[in-house]
Please model this.
Amino acid sequence: MPFTNKLFGGVVQSSRLALDARMERQGLIQSNVANIETPGYNVQDFSFAAVMKNAMLQRGKLAQTNERHLGLDPVALSESLEFSNEKRPVDLDEEMQKLAENQLMFQVTTKILGSKFESLKLAIDEGGK
Model:
């Protein structure tokens, strides 16, 4: 178990997974908006909750017998498993709402992660007095 997981109870790892998933979703939403005028293009999305659940449960993750072995990225794996391709055209208002929500949740996650490191910095600074 990495030191940061012991220190922060898994917040750093789960935040990393959440930020990765948010970045993936951001790109997907942007792709939807970019293809709004493309004939035959259907809206694409994935369930953030499902991706996080699979990533946190490490579904599909290969066992690493050596720490130098490369592991599967759980976000990429979850995205491929949970990807939904609805058969409807892109609704710009809906995509803009999803984009704003995704950006807000990305910012919230970075604030939570930042506050954990600020707490650590405070403990280090105060401990040195």
The two ends are 30 Å apart (CA to CA). Residues 3-127 form one domain. The beta strands are 44-46, 83-85.
